């Protein structure tokens, strides 16, 4: 049984990969050094837990001391506590999706194997473990840490209509990232990460406009609703292209390319199953998106049927009456 890595080892590895990550973002790395995952001593698992804790603290500090006060001012004196929380929740979701979309767009396409699916499993032919650059490792572990802290945050923030689906999504994402990292599926995983994030940026911008319009009313409500509908349509377009077009292609390609190695890797088969679970969730969410689109066409405005629970707002509205 391996001895658990010490605190100094974990912090040193964390600093090392984060440094490489920012060097890659700035384009100051000419040739990235490749290393295998550090399984011994559970070092990489402990790095993930440390980064999850840091992101959790960052998320809630930013929310409590900046985003919620700004949201309260922006929404005005007529907004409810639930609206402020939901606005802050969407603002932070938008921030993280935009940040990781940018990170992924800079780091992942620079990898030699990105544009050639046959290279995703090339090393498996010789039985070697697939190595990973420090910058890509940092992106990978940070991505997992983001969903790790998100899973905990779901338990303490304003509850959504699809709380169970979101909890399942976060859990499956962390599990899939962990398995793909352990069994050398980091190339497929990185491609999936790049594809899944961008669509949610305009979705949360649309939500923010809608929340402002709902509480402000008047002419501002009309303009905010128009902006919300525009960004929602952008979200639908990106969702359809990236999650229902490109993502199924990646799942099928990974399925086909990895099939010869299933007998020697039970983890690979599990990764394939989880990729299909995520695909099923995308299809489920798109049915909800279509419901909103139908409302836009028939009623002239989009209601957020995917992830908000308006019970608090309804009760507040009754009190005003």
From TrEMBL:
Localization (cell): Membrane
The UniProt record lists the keyword ATP-binding: no
PROSITE patterns reported in the protein's UniProt record: TLC
Alphabetical UniProt keywords: Membrane, Transmembrane, Transmembrane helix
InterPro entries: Lag1/Lac1-like (IPR016439), TLC-dom (IPR006634)
Residue stretches spanning the membrane: 45-66, 87-108, 168-186, 230-252, 273-294
Membrane topology summary: Multi-pass membrane protein
GO biological process: ceramide biosynthetic process
Residues annotated as domain TLC: 90-298
Main location: membrane
Molecular function in Gene Ontology: sphingosine N-acyltransferase activity
GO CC terms in record: endoplasmic reticulum membrane
Superkingdom: Eukaryota
The protein's name in its UniProt record: Predicted protein
Provenance organism: Micromonas pusilla (strain CCMP1545) (Picoplanktonic green alga)
């Amino acid at each position: 049984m391996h001895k658990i890595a010490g605190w100094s080892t974990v912090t040193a590895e964390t600093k090392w990969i984060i440094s490489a990550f920012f060097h890659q973002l700035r384009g100051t790395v000419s040739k990235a050094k490749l290393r295998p995952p550090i399984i011994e001593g559970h070092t990489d698992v402990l790095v993930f837990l440390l980064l999850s804790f840091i992101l959790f603290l960052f998320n809630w500090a930013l929310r409590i001391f900046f985003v919620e006060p700004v949201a309260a001012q922006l929404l005005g004196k007529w907004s409810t506590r639930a609206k402020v929380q939901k606005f802050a929740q969407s603002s932070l979701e938008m921030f993280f999706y935009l940040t990781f979309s940018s990170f992924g767009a800079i780091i992942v396409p620079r990898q030699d194997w990105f544009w050639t699916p046959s290279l995703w499993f090339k090393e498996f032919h010789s039985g070697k473990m697939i190595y990973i650059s420090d910058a890509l490792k940092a992106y990978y572990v940070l991505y997992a840490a983001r969903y790790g802290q998100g899973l905990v945050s779901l338990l303490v923030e304003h509850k959504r209509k699809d709380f169970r689906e979101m909890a399942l999504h976060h859990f499956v994402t962390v599990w899939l990232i962990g398995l793909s990292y352990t069994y050398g599926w980091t190339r497929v995983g990185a491609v999936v990460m790049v594809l899944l994030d961008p669509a949610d940026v305009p979705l949360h911008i649309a939500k923010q406009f809608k929340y402002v319009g709902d509480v402000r009313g008047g002419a501002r409500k009309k303009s905010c609703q128009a902006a919300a509908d525009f960004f929602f349509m952008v979200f639908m377009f990106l969702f359809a292209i990236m999650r229902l077009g490109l993502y199924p292609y990646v799942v099928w390609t990974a399925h086909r390319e990895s099939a010869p190695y299933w007998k020697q890797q039970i983890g690979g088969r599990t990764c394939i199953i989880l990729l299909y679970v995520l695909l099923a969730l995308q299809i489920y969410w798109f049915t909800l998106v279509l419901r909103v689109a139908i409302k836009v066409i028939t009623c002239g405005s989009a209601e957020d049927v995917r992830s908000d629970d308006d019970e608090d707002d309804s009760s507040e509205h009754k009190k005003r009456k």
